[in-house]
Amino acid sequence: MSHIEPSLPAAGLLRRLAAILYDSLLLSALWFAVATALLALSGGRLSAPDRPLWLLYVFRATLLLVTFLFFGWFWTRGGQTLGMRAWRLKVIADREQPLTWTQAARRFAAAGLSWAALGLGFLWVTVDSEKRAWHDRLSGTRVVVLPKPH
Question: Where are the domains of the chain?
Answer without folding.
Answer: 13-145
